[in-house]
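Milestone M4 deliverable, item 7.
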Amino acid sequence: MTEYSVSRATFDDVMVPNYAPQKVVPVRGKGSRIWDQEGKEYIDFAGGIAVNALGHCHPELVKNLKSQADKLWHLSNVYTNEPALALAQALTEVCFAEKVFFCNSGTEANEAAFKLVRKYAYDHTGPEKHEIISFNSSFHGRSLFAVTVGGQPKYCEGYAPVPAGVTHLPFNDVEALKAAISDKTCAIVLEPIQGEGGVIPATPEFLQAARELCDQHNALLVFDEVQTGVGRTGEFYAYMNTGVVPDILTTAKSLGGGFPVGAMLTTTEVANSFGFGSHGSTYGGNALACSVALAAITLINDDQLLANVSGKHQLFRRELESINDEFGVFTEIRGKGLLIGAELTPEWHGKGKEFLAAAAEEGLMMLVAGPNVLRMAPSLIIPDDDIRQGMAALKRAVAKIVQN
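Output delivered:
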């Protein structure tokens, strides 16, 4: 096989310019550590954008992947396979859902959910019941339907006309929701914690109102748990400590522990609107992905691991507050479990990526959620010492930025 010499400059030569990756080119990972082409070591607070829930190259996931690779990779859904059925059984045992649709990503899981809510309303009421209510600053993926439902207009620019029948409201505004919902509404779609929108948790009152209003108007409640799901908040799914149960839940990211896989979870009644031929995915539910995902969720759905996530949240918060006590760069630290956002003060608005670049120079990888919020979504099993060392690197980075 031909060997290629690649660098960051190669990206500009051969890749579509829809990304602007940092100059670091990681080549190896282990646990919560990453090494680049030059051998420099980094602590990983980014987690592949909340994907690598068990860190890099977790031995159980690697073992499972190698084992399945010697058996069966892909069949298409003309047939089914044992890992897909086992994973579906496991997911229905751990949450409210009775039926599962597998795909490859969060975008695809949401696309399936958005199609299903309209199909369900069509089947039970008629074509006039098609409106989807979503919320400002939400993010649900990058397909045309998904960016339309998402509440960030910048992602729709240049793609008009976009699908009709989507209404966006202020997040956490119960009165606005009461005023907007009608018998034409087929679904309310929300994230229990808005991830890309700035790590903004939904209030308990808002979630409860969404559930009650859906029930009153015969609409479905969809929780996008692509980012909050599979242990990220200290619950297996974030809805589990809210007292509110959705009709449909979408999940991906941490579901595969780094292997591409997504799923839409729902009840039997709602699932029946996706009859034979109504939706599909060539790769969705392939044996490799489902085998790895089953190993991942088996490890994550552990009482002690989930309890530790909440403990690690407190350590992150203490360290961030300590940095803020010294430098005063954050207005608020928010989130739950190991989905954490630190909003920059107005002085530093629009400069989130500068903090990312400075942190990388100090040996720390992290994220932003928009231009004004530093976001951390590390491995759920990141050692406490790695958290402290990563925060020391962030402190050095903040000091350099502030002093300049």
